[in-house]
Amino acid sequence: MSGRMLQVAVVGLGRRSQRHAVPYFTQENTSWRLAAVCDSSNSTTEKFKGTFSSGFHVPSFADVSSMISSTSVDCAYVAVPHYQSAAIVQKLLASKIHVLKEKPAAMTAVELESFQELARSNAVTFSTASQFRYSGQFRQMQQWLPLVGNIRFVEGIQKIPVCDLGAGWRASRVLSGGGVLIDLGWHLVDLVLSLLSDNSIPGVEFAQTLQTWCRFNC
């Protein structure tokens, strides 16, 4: 791929993709080009076209198979509900397309091993994104930590903008791959590991409390 622009696809046009991935991949540069987007929701795709497609054409698809057969793609960023990801990731890897998937890496250890083997056999890369550790506030915390002293206890609190956890797929162990503790706890554990990366620290006791808040006063 040396000497030419990487052709990137965004699979899943939810909040994470529209706030972060699509604006990043649509920047003017000489390294990559947003070659395609894919989402099963027609209304979401139309919103994307109205928001991001002015001035350039990005083909959109309702399913990954159609995208693969119609567009040349080198890499795909995948951000879909956890229970929908397996078939999508498998099709991309089998088509020799590199995959960067929003966490978690897979629903089960067996599923993860199958992704890794598929990536190896097709000579492509399968990676998982944990984006919180790169935010400005946590980078600032890393600079302040030396002033704290010897850290012996860490408590993590995760807030999510939903009114009723039972109404969506995130609270389901089956659909999210472990429920909110595993789904959101991933971020908290990753942050602890990234902030306290000094191997001289004997141990960290991790306490996770899930709090919900409602954006619309419900």
Automatic annotation (TrEMBL):
This is NAD(P)-binding protein. Residues 7-128 form the Gfo/Idh/MocA-like oxidoreductase N-terminal domain. It holds the Pfam family GFO_IDH_MocA. InterPro entries: Gfo/Idh/MocA-like_OxRdtase_N (IPR000683), Gfo/Idh/MocA_Oxidoreductases (IPR051450), NAD(P)-bd_dom_sf (IPR036291). The lineage of its organism: Eukaryota, Fungi, Dikarya, Ascomycota, Pezizomycotina. GO terms for molecular function: nucleotide binding. It comes from Glonium stellatum.
